[in-house]
Design goal:
Glutaredoxin, 2 domains, 4-stranded mixed beta sheet, 7 helices
């Protein structure tokens, strides 16, 4: 019987197909991890072990790459990713208050995922849309000039549970 976190045979086949796509070359580790994350929405521990074995590189090296880049996640993410910009322009316009409202509304902290796996919350130092700050991005949708009062309205677009 499979334990939580175990990879199913179909999962192994998917990972093997990704590795084969890159000819099992070590120099494509980042690409392989990106593709695996696209399939699973995060990098399962057993997948990293499997990649380490197949590419014949130390597991610590695989983990090093997976933890170095912020784009990778070692924990399951929610169906929607909510990103709050804390860059200088957003900060001076009240981004911290917006972030506090998002945290209260979702009942999670930065780096966490809601219990129902609906949302994950993260922050960034700049989204490059300074004139529109404070900025909140949900998935790939940018919401500018955010205020505490607009948070629920924006999050409701992505979930009926808000």
């Amino acid at each position: 019987m499979a334990k939580p976190g175990d990879l199913l045979p179909k999962d192994i086949r998917l990972i093997d197909a990704i590795i084969k796509k890159y000819e099992a070359k070590k120099e494509f580790l980042i690409c392989i991890l990106q593709d695996i994350q696209n399939v699973f929405e995060y990098l399962p521990r057993k997948a990293l072990i499997h990649v380490s074995e197949k590419l014949e590189i130390p597991l610590i090296q695989v983990y090093g790459v997976a933890t170095f880049f912020k784009a990778f996640s070692l924990i399951p993410r929610g169906g929607h990713t909510c990103t709050v910009c804390l860059g200088t322009a957003c900060h001076v316009r009240g981004a911290e208050k917006v972030l506090d409202k998002v945290k209260r509304t979702l009942d999670i902290d930065v780096g966490e995922t809601t219990k129902d796996m609906d949302f994950s919350l993260k922050t960034v130092n700049c989204l490059g849309a300074c004139a529109l700050g404070p900025m909140v991005v949900v998935d790939d949708d940018y919401h500018g000039h955010m205020t505490q009062n607009k948070v629920n309205e924006v999050l409701k677009k992505y979930s009926t549970k808000i």
